[in-house]
Structure formats: structure tokens, C-alpha cells
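Notes, p. 3: input format for complexes.
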Amino acid sequence: MSLSRRHLLVSAAAAAAASAFARAAFAQAPMLPKKDTYKVGFAQTESNNPWRLAQTKSMQDEAAARGWQMVYTDAAGSAAKQVADVNSMIAQGVDLIFLAPREELPLIPAIKAAKGANIPIILLDRNVDQSLAKAGEDYVTFIGSDFIEEGKRVAEWLVANAGGKSKILQLEGTTGSSPANDRKKGFDDVIAANAAFTMLASQTGDFARDKGRQVAETLLQAHPDADIIYAHNDEMAIGAISAVEAAGKVAGKDVMILSIDGGKEIVQLIIDGKVAAVCECSPLFGPKAFDTAVAYANGEVIPAKLINPDRFYDITNAAESLATAY
Ligand code: AHR
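Output follows (326 residues plus alpha-L-arabinofuranose):
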């Protein structure tokens, strides 16, 4: 082989190796350098309920305990604002962003922008569309509950404890959000496999108390025979209790109420006999979120998902659980 041909082949091989290396490097989520302290961002989705307030406090307390600076934003229920919030954190040069994405699709460009700016993102509590962004590549990891399992646990409790009730109204969370999609799937799959139950209607109440009340009122008017309401969170379940009472019925007797979240208020409502069962979804992310960031900076391998354990409340354990509910 002539010298110039061999030179060409060697150069081509070197270029291919360099390009494969660059592709592999870009396939990785950005690294977090080891430092004594960090400036991190926390992009919250909204602050209109006790769950979100508890999550924010847990993050702020942890940042303060570690002496880290935390840039906090509240998207006030707008995915567009949350994208702008993440872009602002990028412009402020934070070291890492904790993101609680409001919906699965609209936050994808923000995740890609952070990656382009070499800033790692850790997803908290809600996930994004897995066909468009991946753990370990576009973001570091997802920390949160298994929402499908939450819906399934509520449905399985219902199957075992319905006591003759069978006609269900479902109040879904925010449309397009991972907890709404997954809590519906987990619940619906169990119910669909059980001929004793009928899903009369399923509609979004946007995870909000008053919207949940309004939607439950409308659905109860359309389906006066409904005797079970499954709400995707405590706020809508509490709104639904008002709707049941406004319809002249007794929550916990005429209509069984089921929920997910497990704040103090709903656990007390189990004790009061108005709510039947609740799957916990803990909002206390601070310690785990910050520990994960430190582990990442230390070069530890972080799994694609870090699943929080959730308790389950009904009348058998509500009184003893009240003190430790968030
Ligand atoms: O993403 C978790 C859900 O979001 C909680 O169940 C709900 O209360 C919150 O708004």
C-alpha cells in the first residue's frame, strides 16, 4: 500500500473514532463538577396546594442546611412559563437544575436547552415523554413515586373493600402530566378487569380543589347513581366532598371517596369517615434530591429512576399515621 493511501486510511479511522467519541460524549447527560457548594435551580410547577408547598419547603430547607444557593421559580401552572424559568436559570449559570415538569411534552425543549448549556437536570416528581428525552442522556435521573402503582393500589383496595358500591366517577389530574396519565392507567387497568365495576365518567379537575369540586358537581348531576369518586389527588378529593354534600348526599356513606397524596387534611378526613382510602405520594424530596446531586458529582452511577416508597392509608391506620403525614 502506498504511503499516501495508508495515511488517508489512518486519518479516516482517526476522524471516525473522534466523531464516535464526540457522539458518545454528547449522548451523556452533562457532568456536575465536584465543588464545596453549588448554585442550583428548582423550577416548581405551581404553588396552589399543600403538596407543592411541602415539596418547595423540603427543597429550600435542604439547600439552607447544606449552605447551597437555590434559585427558585414558580411556573404558576403554566408550562410555557416553566420553560422560560429554566431558560432564565441557564442564563444565570446555575450548576444544576431540579425540574418538576408540569406536563410530559412541553418541557422537552427546556431539558435540551440545559443539556446544550452543559447544565445537568434532575427531574423531580413528574416525568417527561420517554420517547423524546432519556435519563442518563438528556437528564440525570427521575426521582419520584411510581404513579401507575399508586393508581393500581387504590383500585385493588377498592376491589377488596367496595361493600357493594360499583359506579365510579374519576377526577383526573392535569391533562398531559405524568401523574394524571399513570394514575389513570394503574386504576383503569384493574377496574377494566373486574366486571363488578362501571366507570361512569372520567374528567380532568387539574389537580385543583375548586376545579375538582366544579367537575364533581357536574358529573354527579349527570350520574346521580354514582357511588364512588376516585380523585387523582387530595385537593380534588376534598373538592369532591363539597360537591357530594351540595348534592344532599353523605361523603363516606352514599359516595365512597378515594384519593392519592396523603396530606394531614385527608388523613384526618379518613378518621372523620368521609374518605375511605388514600395512597401516599410523598412531597418530601429535599434530602434525596440533594444527595443524588452529590452522588452524581462524585461520579457514582445513578439509576434512570429513583422511586420513592409510598404508604397507604385507610381506617385501619389513619389515626396512627396522622402525625407523620406531611
Ligand atoms: O406530581 C405530583 C402531583 O402533583 C401531586 O399528586 C399533586 O397533588 C401535585 O399537584
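The chain has a mean pLDDT of 94.
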